[in-house]
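Subject: sequence -> C-alpha cells, single chain

Hey, anyone have a minute? Need the predicted structure for the following. Not urgent.
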Amino acid sequence: MEPFYFKSFERVIGIACDLPGLYYTMKCLSMYDKQAIEYHIKQGHIANWLDYTGNHELSKLMANVKSVEEALSILEQYLKKYQKSQKKVNAKRVAKMF
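Reply:
Had a minute. Here:
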C-alpha cells in the first residue's frame, strides 16, 4: 500500500504509512504547517487514502471533518478503540494457547 504524503507547495513535509503514523504526523505538522493539513482534509485526500487502505468507517467519519483539531480527535478516539479491540484479540489468542 502506498503511504500518505503530506505536501506543501509540491514539497513532501510528512509521510504516514498507517493509522498511528497518520495521527502522529498530523499532530506534529499541526504545530508547523497547519494549513497544509487543512488543505488535505478539505480536499478529501485523507478520507480517500483511508478508504484506499480499507478503513472505510474511518474514511466516512473523516469526509465531513472541517478542522485539524476535529480530525485529530476522531483519529485519537478511533485508535483507542482499535487498541482495545486488539488487546482483546491478543488475550484470546494467548488463552487458546493454554
